[in-house]
Amino acid sequence: MASHIVGYPRMGPKRELKFALESFWDGKSTAEDLQKVSADLRSSIWKQMADAGIKYIPSNTFSYYDQVLDTTALLGAVPERYNWNGGEIGFDTYFSMARGNASVPAMEMTKWFDTNYHFIVPELGPNTKFSYASHKAVSEYKEAKALGVDTVPVLVGPVTYLLLSKPAKGVEKTFSLLSLLDNILPIYKEVVAELKAAGASWIQFDEPTLVKDLDSHQLEAFTKAYTELESSFSGLKVVIETYFADVPAKAYKTITSLNAITGFGFDLVRGTKTLDVIKSEGFPSGKYLFAGVVDGRNIWANDLAASLSTLEALEGIVGKDKLVVSTSSSLLHTAVDLVNETKLDDEIKSWLAFAAQKVLEVNALAKALAGQKDEAFFSANAAAQASRKSSPRVTNPEVQKAAAALKGSDHRRATNVSARLDAQQKKLNLPILPTTTIGSFPQTIELRRVRREYKANKISEEAYVNAIKEEISKVVKIQEEFDIDVLVHGEPERNDMVEYFGEQLSGFAFTVNGWVQSYGSRCVKPPIIYGDVSRPKAMTVFWSSIAQSLTSRPMKGMLTGPVTILNWSFVRNDQPRFETCYQIALSIKQEVEDLEAAGINVIQIDEAALREGLPLRKSEEAFYLDWAVHSFRITNCGVKDTTQIHTHMCYSNFNDIIHSIIDMDADVITIENSRSDEKLLSVFREGVKYGAGIGPGVYDIHSPRIPSTEEIADRIKKMLAVLETNILWVNPDCGLKTRKYAEVKPALTNMVAAAKQLRTELASAK
């Protein structure tokens, strides 16, 4: 019985690639150094899977930034502004597209389906010239083969690539991206031919857009693409891989009718209804089913007995020799190896499986199906499953009772937002176009050292508190010098906006090396929500009160919202997600009320990940948005009219949920805008009325590029064309923690100068 892994984490067990990338970007190491680190990581991953007995091992899932950008490089679809002159795409062009450079901005970045992983959005149009410009897929296949590992090269499928793209600047928004299919298929044929010549026997095409609601025209594109590629596949086996949700019946019929395709991969963890489709529609004779029964997106140990039962049922449909045990998606979305976790207690550790352990689970299930069941492995798994179900640390009756009591109200503030804004203005006395930042300031090496030494008990609590106070004082002084209107304390006490809160809430566990890639070199360490959630004590009041005491200007209290904490954690899978979210909302509500009582008049409750959690199918969206928006309102429904509630969202497409954003009833929302070509503003041009305060980002903080005053002023003018002057705020796209002070200081100086310039122009126009 065969086993298969869809994809594997790239960063390394201790973020080796992250540090290599950042060293290269800072000019401290060479391209050869970066390539050496990446080659060592790939070699280790391939050998690990081979040693574990995996038959179908992926290659070309490694990336220096993301797999969609790699496909853009493969196709030579480089926007003109990067001045690429053809040939093999090198690091300069590649990283300019990802991060921007001194003269041009980066390409748009957005969320990969409903995950916290990001990809660089391709910019295409009728005049885009395609060419085979990156041979990475072939070179990595050859690299693995030289190590004695025969891999399955993985390509982002042509239809998914086009459906994830956007019309380039200046191209009509109605332009059909699928009309470019004929332009890119010749390049896919070249890649396939080279892989075949190099000795590849299988190729995997990732087509995750098949799980979305596609119209007949879009489905026909899959038929067209793979029919056109059929002649290229001669002598090869090809699998189309889908993940993250159920495959709708129409899409299932479309792809399983493709003669050129040898196998089909389905996510049977988040796509449990696909099982019913397979049973009702049947499965094509002689084809392979890659059954994704091991969760690629969470860290809970697989229920091996239940998975084996599912596989045995599928075996009766597709045949023993055509069933392949697989992960539900790439393991990119989970942590690397539980072996590196030295501080998790044994009970919780027994409930978990990271990527390395999931590889073993896949192989154990494949062997069990083949009649070689490892009884000890299955027995230990069953004991861990039973332990988790019966553990008293999972359930808190008081928390469950409080969450159940929420169902009788929609938790709206008593006064409408217009009246609240009037009351807040009387108290805060802000100018028009008030300036603020999103929360974090640069996290210096010294600051990280202080936090690290405090956690390791190498410095006293007093020394730690004094160091953080000093950093807060520095950040406050900088903002006052820039003349920013509403200040932040810079979050020097926080390594991560979710981890910080999770560490202070019950029901959470934490890892030492459970890092997961978010984008580029950016990694996050998601908390593990294993039980009912409550707040034992105040979490931010001490630091916010200190910060407010240092200035007469309004100081924002900075919180992470319940939906974002949920979506950026590894969430328990033994109760509905909305129940866990309501528990978190009650804890944040307590914190909001304590901040207000401490004299904090502006409180930001970030919901950066609200859009990210939106289900991939339209039929499921309303239910999610209802409980997600409700959870946010729970957090602040009890505050005074004079307390201004902010929220922040970033790097997703918000236009389709704008009415739900309005329904959140925040007083002010700051929202990513600049990197996405001000796509957000189109909603307001189309007539959506927004009465609360709003700050569409005026510059991209994920790029080292420093915008000029004129550029920012121009952005503000575009906003004023569709938004009322009295509700518009001026702010960056997102927090500043990933930037250096050498970038932040001139950028914020220019931002404030632009706001003041526009205030003067508006005053003189009256």
Descriptive account of the structure:
By secondary structure, the protein is α/β, with parallel strands linked by helices. Helix content is about 40%, strand content about 10%. The chain contains 27 helices and 21 strands. Strand 20 (about 670), helix 25 (about 680-685) and strand 21 (about 695) form a beta-alpha-beta unit. The radius of gyration is 26 Å and the shape is globular. The model has no long low-confidence stretch (mean pLDDT about 95). Belongs to the vitamin-B12 independent methionine synthase family. Its EC number is 2.1.1.14.
Short description:
Residues 433-756 form the Cobalamin-independent methionine synthase MetE C-terminal/archaeal domain. The protein has 766 residues and is of the alpha/beta class.
